[in-house]
Amino acid sequence: MSQKLFDLLSRHLSSHKLEQFHKVAEQRTRYLTLVFEDIYQAQNSSAILRSAETWGVQDIHIIENNHSFQQHQRISKGAADWLTLLRYNQAQANTKTCLQHLKAKGYRIAVTTLGDDSVSASNLPLDRPIAVLMGTELTGASTEALEFADVKLQIPGWGFTKSLNVAAAAAVICQRLTERMREENIHWQLSQEEQLSLKIEWAKQSIKWSKYLIEMFESNEIP
One digit per residue, pLDDT tens: the chain, 223 residues? Predict the structure, then answer.
């Protein structure tokens, strides 16, 4: 059924767009995912979305305890349109809910923080899926997030400034970890079913009358 729906939507896409969908879907991953915890500056969240999309990270988990998620379209360049954004903003225990969910799905939780017991992205174990949590700009990851951490992550530097802006840090982490995944013997790709599901969602975004087409498809008005 999904393939038939995509075949229908494909008739309304240019050959160039269709080729893009196939190529990008093949490079998408959920082996690495990013978690925002109360990131409140729209320029930072927008830049992180752009970095994640550029390096093929599909899922972004957004924890909204004290701040709502915002983005600048000019900075993100529409990256959010191609990503799966999952929000946690229903209760006070949003951090716990998010991280418990990820742990149940088999993710190792890596929380970015400075400290002698933190490892670099080059040394972070990749023997199982990894979720990297980045905390709020002012104070970093919460105590609760650190309690859930399976490993603490930092970007080593050799200057007087000991930490990067959160958006810059996310770019470095995305680049290094996705590069390592492709170099090592890791099955990081999405399944064919996941790729198809993504391409359907992207087609919906790209076709202005997609809702009408889907309604006709579901009512069997289109063979």
Answer: 789 999 989 999 999 999 999 999 999 999 999 999 998 888 899 999 999 999 999 999 999 988 888 775 655 568 889 999 999 998 778 999 999 999 999 999 999 998 778 999 999 999 999 999 998 887 888 999 999 999 999 888 888 777 788 999 999 999 999 999 999 989 999 999 999 999 999 999 899 888 888 888 778 766 5
Whether the CB-CB separation of 149 and 109 falls below 8 Å is answered with yes
Cα separation, 195 vs 201, in Å, equals 10
Amino acid at residue number 84: T
User: Rounded distance, CA 102 to CA 110, Å?
Assistant: 11
The tokens of 10 are what? 């494909």
What's the full length of the chain, in residues?
223
What pTM was computed for the model? Answer: 0.91
What CATH number does domain 29-188 carry, 3.40.50.2000, 3.30.70.3270, 2.60.120.430, 3.40.1280.10? 3.40.1280.10
Contact in structure between 126 and 96 (CB atoms under 8 Å): no
Helix axis angle for 2-10 and 210-218, nearest 10°, is 140
Cβ contact 198:2 at 8 Å: no
Q: Check if the beta carbon of residue 202 is closer than 8 Å to that of residue 7.
A: no
- Written as one string, the DSSP assignment of 14-46 is -HHHHHHHHHHHHH-BSSEEEEEES---HHHHH
Q: Is 109 helix (H, G, I), strand (E, B) or coil?
A: strand
Q: Name the one residue in this structure whose structure tokens are 């830049």.
A: 47
Triad 25, 7, 202: Cα angle to 5°? 40
